[in-house]
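User: My collaborator sent over this chain with a note saying "see what the structure looks like." That's all I know about it. Can you take a look?
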Amino acid sequence: MVEKKSRTFNPKVDDANWQALFEKHFQDLQSLGAISTLWIAGFSKLGIDQSKRPTAVQLTQAVQPYTGYTFVQTKENIILEQIDWYTMISNYEMPMTNFVRTPEELGYCDEPDIWHDIMGHVPFLAEQSYSEMYQMLAATYVLAYNSKRKDLLVELDFVGGMLIELGLVRESSGLKALGSTFYSSSEVFEAYKPENQIDFTMDALRSGASYDRHSFQGKYYIIDSMDHLSKIIDSIARRL
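Assistant: Without extra context I'll predict from the sequence alone. Here is the result:
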C-alpha cells in the first residue's frame, strides 16, 4: 500500500513551488496559444504576485467587487461531493484546499490542491458572464439533486466534468482552454492534439461519459461560446 503524502501549508516551500509552477505552466499555456480572453480578463483583476501563493482573504477582496464570491480556506485535501460543492457555489462561496503541489507534480497531482483551485477556477469566477453561467449550473444541480432526477444529474456531471473542467472554446483568435484543469495541469498538451478534440453535441451530453479525476481523459469537447454553454445548461434546467 502506497503511503499518502503529508500535505500541509508551508509558506516558504509553498511560495517557492508556486513561483516555479506559475512560470513553467504559464509558458506552456502561452506556447500553445491556449489562454482564453475570459481567463486573462479575470486573472488581471486578481493582482496576483506570481512569486507567492495568494490567500483566500486576498482573493475574496479582489473578486467581491466584480462577482461577489467569498473564497473559503479549508483544512481539507479531499474533493467535495458534487452537491456540497454546488451548494457552496450557489451561495457565492468556493472552498480551497490546503496545499500547493510540487513542481514535479505539475503534469499530474493525485490530490486536489490550491494551485488548481486558484489558477483553474478563481479567474473565471471574477468574470460576470462566467459567474452567471456557473450560478445557473449550481442552482440546476441542487434542484435536480433535491428532486432525485438522476437522469439530469448525469448530464450535469458531464457539463461540470467534460466542459467546465476539460472543455475547449472557439474564440476569434482560435481554440482556447475553457476547462479549469488546463490552467493547472499539463493535460492541456493532450487537449491540443487535434485527434483528441471533438465537437460537442447533445448526444454527448446524454452519453453518460464522466470525468475521471485520476487520469488524463484523452477526449476534449469543443463548444462555440460561453453563450453556447449557458444554453446547454438551460436545456437541462427546462426539464426539471
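A starting point for your reply to your collaborator: The two ends are 44 Å apart (CA to CA).
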